[in-house]
Amino acid sequence: MRVLVVEDDQLVRRGFISMMPWKTYGLEVVGEAINGEKALEFLAHNDVDLLFTDLLMPVMTGLELMKQVNVRYPHIGQVVLTFHEEFEYIQEALRIGALDYIIKADFEVEQMDDVLQRIV
């Protein structure tokens, strides 16, 4: 499965990409984007199966990106990766169709396998 990671904080994005055991689950990170608009540009020219996105980013939020992806690329699975623990964000992401909602502050190395097993 081909993965796109959308996160405006480069350090967080690179750290997340480097710490996940992608290959163990047959996943490959094929792209990165700093906001929803850049993600849609990437998706227009590349095949992606799974999208990890932050929620609050400049230009286009993760929630708006998820809505656009549902319309344009309904085959792409979506996972939220964010610092925001507010119930309203979680509820909206799940309503839009998020496969999982990962809180960055709570995310530990031990959780990686569980998360990827649920998603794949």
Structure description:
There is one protein chain. By secondary structure, the protein is an alpha/beta fold. The chain has one domain: Response regulator (Rossmann fold), CATH 3.40.50. The protein has 5 helices and 5 strands. The chain has a 5-stranded parallel beta sheet, sandwiched between helices. The model has no long low-confidence stretch (mean pLDDT 89). Keywords: DNA-binding, Phosphoprotein, Transcription, Transcription regulation.
Q: What is the string of helix and strand elements? A: EHEHEHEHEH
| Strand adjacency order, main sheet | 2-1-3-4-5
CATH topology: Rossmann fold
- How large is the count of helical segments? 5
Per CATH, the superfamily is Response regulator
Task: Indicate the proportion of strand residues.
Answer: 15-25%
What structural class do helix, strand and pairing data support? Answer: alpha/beta
**Stretches with pLDDT under 50, minimum 5 residues:** none
Principal-axes shape call: globular
Strand count, sense and closure of the main sheet? 5 strands, parallel
Q: How many structural domains in the coordinates?
A: 1
Name the CATH architecture.
3-Layer(aba) Sandwich
Helix content: 40-55%
Q: Quick one: how many beta strands?
A: 5
Based on CA atoms alone, the radius of gyration comes out at: 13 Å
Q: Overall mean pLDDT score?
A: 89
Q: CATH first level: which class?
A: Alpha Beta
GO biological process, one term: phosphorelay signal transduction system
Pfam families: Response_reg
Modified residues (4-aspartylphosphate): 54
GO molecular function, one term: DNA binding
